[in-house]
Design goal:
Blueprint (H helix, E strand, L loop, with lengths): L2 H20 L16 E7 L2 E5 L2 E4 L4 E2 L5 E4 L4 E6 L3 E5 L4 E9 L5 E15 L8 E6 L2 E5 L3 E6 L4 E8 L2 E5 L2 H4 L3 H4 L1 H13 L2 E3 L3 E6 H27 L10 H16 L3 E4 L4 H16 L1 H23 L15 E7 L6 E4 L2 E5 L1 E7 L3 E7 L6 E6 L5 E5 L4 E4 L3 E6 L4 E8 L2 E6 L3 E6 L4 E6 L9 E3 L2 E5 L4 E6 L5 E6 L11 E2 L4 E4 L4 E5 L5 E6 L9 E2 L3 E5 L4 E6 L5 E6 L10 E3 L2 E5 L4 E6 L5 E6 L9 E3 L2 E5 L4 E6 L5 E6 L9 E3 L2 E6 L2 E6 L5 E6 L9 E3 L2 E5 L4 E6 L3 E4 L1
Parallel strand pairs: 9-10, 18-24
Antiparallel strand pairs: 1-4, 1-6, 2-3, 2-5, 5-8, 6-7, 7-9, 8-9, 9-12, 10-11, 11-14, 12-13, 13-16, 14-15, 16-17, 18-21, 19-20, 19-22, 22-23, 25-58, 26-57, 27-28, 28-29, 29-30, 31-32, 32-33, 33-34, 35-36, 36-37, 37-38, 39-40, 40-41, 41-42, 43-44, 44-45, 45-46, 47-48, 48-49, 49-50, 51-52, ...
Helix pairs in contact: 1-5, 1-6, 5-6
Length: about 725
């Protein structure tokens, strides 16, 4: 019997002893009530509710909270809570947090315990004194803190993650079935031994570190320990019936359960630690600190009001009197909820708590709303919101949707020459060009609908506007084609070509094109040239239009603002390097330009003055992607940066092995881009890779969207349709 197995052997013997002790009635008197600490909801936005005893009410600013209150936030909702005078919690969207304990000891020290059932919280407690305690729990973990700033996030059936910004957190598994025994009130020696065991298995998360707990493994461990307790109770009852008083050897059944616990513990690391955190976690803690600093006077006033309300109650308790009790909520009826899953291995959760496998029962109180989650490997998650009904029993027979994994590449087509620029989506069809001059239209199945071979080859990106396609060829010809048939509507000979993935700019009234010889054209939709201006600098990137002006980067370091109505140059600015392929972008009242030397400039649109700049120290050949107040910029050395446009600081940075020369595209929280042969789906908020796939050919286009798939072309002439989601959903 190995040491770890022996340790759990001792624990289970202790559990049996605890069970025996817990059945003895303690008539020494009721536990004394501790004075309560204050808790105030000081900020709320969106759908935030406060509940206790299944009675819910909408959150109000400066409302007092008490032990047992549950805070629930909806979509795009959050709230901030102050506990005592200087401990703060921010409850993020789609979260549930319970204030388990808010008490003051006789010497005035604070004891605080909260449980985050689901979602995310930002924790910023005050610097605790010697006898203070502040515990943050989830269904599977306990985090003990002291003067620590951190974030906690938990998802049932997945992981609980702790990210420490400042200080240290002690993180340990939470075995809730042990909490539900009466060990604490009957055998302090046993309780200390069990807690000591959990303490030894805990880890310390330091500053700028994160830790994760595998919720599924802890749920499994809870389930097994619960079964062991039931077996122990049964065997104890059988021994009492036989009149046995001395401890008998463990039965084979109990030994099997002990071995099962040992298997779970040894199967993999339930708790893991990494030496990094996401920059977004720091920002969330910083946001809470800024809120507190800016609103400290109002917060202190709300706390003082709460203290006055609770002062009389605390004084009565110190004199030995019991506080006045609130009228209990009368629950006239209760409903027995029975959950059945077609898969016996399914994990069933009610409000984030594990309730059983395959089948579970739960008692629902009047007016109570519960959230059901069923997780099964190989199936989609089953979710349902259940509300109390006027009946004694309700059975939910869930249906599971099976998820079949598909190949990442849906289809691919070979074309003559290198696929260039960007593949464009137009309804159920896509338009692409190749270096030979061929422009093609394909449907979602990869079938070619039409094709047209233009003379001179193509090194630019086409633009679709209404029923037409506009594209420039390498011989200087500028074309308008019918997008339904591919037939040429008009062509103009320009002075210079559109090169290096440059595209025309199409507005509601006209078309603009800037060429490699420095000529800027304004063209009507019938092909007539309205005006042409020469800026005497080659243009190798697409201009950007803000409704009044064109902003144009050049090959000679000059950056122009040009009046779109008449072609007059409004201002000219000299940058530190030329601009190639990277198009300027508009951000608020500024224009962002990225140079070949690796500098990101933010320029005042009206005055042409540089507001700030960021050095990436590697050529930038792609257009930045703007998301909120951040710009995602890829350098050719494979580094991808998220830059805060308000202060120029880097949020996060990610290094890839290949070069990044194709402009990324975004959809939701995902950034899609290619590096060498590989396509990536990246989380915009933190830089984590959702998935990646090596296509075996060097990709030469940006990623485009076609329904639920991604389209991209290679230098070998292959057009790939790549699935974003590999699940084929079937009942």
């Amino acid at each position: 019997m190995n040491k770890k197995f022996y340790s759990y052997f001792i624990i289970i013997l202790s559990i049996i002893s605890v069970i025996s002790c817990s059945e003895k009635e303690d008539k020494s008197g009721e536990e004394s009530v501790k004075p309560a600490n204050t808790a105030v909801l000081v900020f709320s936005v969106g759908n935030v509710r406060i509940g206790q005893n299944s009675v819910w009410k909408d959150a109000e600013i400066n409302m007092s909270l008490k032990s047992g209150d549950e805070i629930e936030t909806g979509d795009k909702s959050k709230c901030n809570i102050v506990i005592g005078k200087d401990s703060y919690i921010s409850v993020k969207e789609n979260s549930k947090l319970v204030l388990q304990e808010l008490s003051l000891n006789e010497n005035g020290s604070e004891k605080t315990a909260v449980e985050l059932k689901i979602g995310k919280g930002i924790i910023n407690p005050k610097k605790l004194l010697k006898n203070d305690s502040f515990d943050v729990k989830t269904p599977t973990s306990v985090a003990a803190v002291r003067g620590t700033k951190f974030t906690v996030e938990t998802t049932p059936g997945e992981v609980t993650k702790i990210s420490v910004i400042e200080g240290k957190v002690q993180l340990k598994k939470r075995i809730t079935v042990l909490e539900n025994t009466d060990a604490a009130g009957n055998d302090s020696e046993i309780t200390e031994m069990l807690n000591d065991k959990l303490e030894k298995e805990s880890i310390i998360i330091g500053e700028n570190q994160s830790g994760e707990i595998d919720n599924t493994k802890v749920d499994e461990l809870n389930s097994i320990v619960a079964e062991v307790i039931e077996v122990a109770k049964t065997e104890k009852a059988e021994k009492e019936q036989k009149g046995e008083k001395e401890a008998a050897p463990l039965t084979a059944k109990l030994n099997d359960k002990l071995a099962e616990i040992n298997t779970v513990i040894q199967s993999e690391n339930i708790i893991q630690k990494t030496d990094q955190i996401d920059i977004a976690e720091k920002q969330e803690v910083n946001d809470l600190e800024i809120y507190v600093k800016e609103n400290k006077a109002e917060i202190d006033k709300a706390v003082q009001t709460a203290e006055k309300t609770i002062l009389v109650q605390n004084e009565k308790i110190s004199d030995g009197d019991q506080p006045e009790k609130e009228e209990p909520v009368v629950v006239s009826k209760a409903m027995k909820l029975i959950i059945n899953s077609p898969e016996k291995s399914s994990s069933i959760y009610i409000d984030g708590r594990f309730k059983g496998r395959g089948k579970a029962e739960y008692s629902v109180k009047e007016n109570e709303k519960v959230n059901l989650l069923i997780k099964t490997k190989g199936y989609e998650d089953y979710t349902q919101e259940i509300v109390w009904e006027d009946k004694t029993e309700k059975t939910v027979n869930s249906s599971l949707i099976k998820s079949k994994l598909l190949e990442r590449v849906a289809w691919k087509i070979d074309f003559p020459g290198e696929v260039k620029g960007s593949v464009l989506e137009s309804g159920s069809r896509s338009i692409l060009t190749s270096s030979t001059g061929r422009i093609s239209c394909v449907n979602t199945s990869g079938d070619v609908v039409w094709k047209n071979d233009l003379n001179g080859g193509i090194d630019s990106v086409p633009v679709i506007y209404k029923e037409n396609i506009y594209v420039g060829a390498k011989d200087g010809k500028f074309y308008s084609l019918d997008k339904s048939t591919g037939k040429v509507i008009f062509s103009n000979q320009l002075d210079g070509a559109l090169l290096f993935n440059t595209a025309p700019v199409v507005t509601e009234k006209e078309i603009f094109a800037a060429t490699s010889t420095g000529k800027v054209y304004k063209i009507a939709f019938d092909g007539k040239i309205i005006w042409m201006k020469d800026i005497y600098s080659g243009v190798y990137s697409t201009p950007v239009f803000d409704g009044s002006n064109l902003y144009i980067g050049t090959d000679s370091r000059s950056f122009f603002a040009m009046n779109a109505s008449n072609g007059k140059v409004e201002w000219e600015l000299e940058l530190n390097s030329r601009i190639v392929s990277s198009s300027p972008v508009i951000y608020q009242n500024s224009v962002i330009a990225c140079t070949y030397s690796g500098t990101v400039f933010i320029i005042n649109k009206k005055k042409g003055k540089i507001i700030q700049s960021s050095e990436l120290n590697s050529p930038i050949l792609v257009t930045p992607v703007i998301k909120g107040h951040n710009a995602l910029v890829a350098a050719s050395d494979g580094n991808l940066f998220s830059i805060n446009l308000d202060n120029g600081k880097t949020n996060w940075q990610k290094k890839f092995s290949g070069t990044v020369v194709n402009t990324p595209t975004s959809q939701g929280d995902s950034l899609y881009f290619t590096s060498g042969n590989t396509v990536y789906d990246l989380n915009i908020n933190n830089g984590n890779i959702n998935w990646s796939y090596n296509l075996g050919e060097r990709i030469k286009t940006s990623v485009s969207f076609a329904g639920s798939n991604l389209l991209m072309g290679s230098e070998d002439g292959t057009l790939f349709s790549v699935r974003k989601d590999l699940r084929d959903i079937t009942e």
